[in-house]
Amino acid sequence: MAEDSKTTAKAPRTSPSEFFKQVKSETGKVVWPTREETVRTAIFVFILMIILSLFFLGVDTVFSAVVRWLLSLA
Questions:
Q1: Contact 35, 27 (CB under 8 A)
Q2: Ordered DSSP codes for 17-33
Q3: 41 and 33 Cβ atoms separated by less than 8 Å
Q4: What pLDDT sits at residue 63?
């Protein structure tokens, strides 16, 4: 086990200028979404947020009613 860590060679350090060149190169490969895709995704997230909010409101209301009923028995 200890020998395995000794045999692996460390990668050479990258200079800051080379690092920023690589970052610029990789950023150029990014496929940015179009305005239409961004708007469509935002609308989808908003609708899903509303649906989940209503779902958790319902679950919370049911649990609250059950707890109040159980406490009224005591």
A1: no
A2: HHHHHHHHHHHHT--PP
A3: yes
A4: 98
Write down the pTM of the prediction: 0.58
d(CA 8, CA 14): 18
User: Six-digit token pair at 5?
Assistant: 């860590």
Mean pLDDT value across residues 59-64: 98
DSSP-based three-state secondary structure for 45: helix
**Per-residue confidence (pLDDT) for residue 20, from 0 to 100:** 92
Q: Can you give the length of the chain in residues?
A: 74
Q: How far is CA 12 from the centre of its chain?
A: 32
d(CA 7, CA 1): 10
Helices (H), 1-74: 2-7, 16-28, 35-73
Specify the residue for token string 């086990």: 1
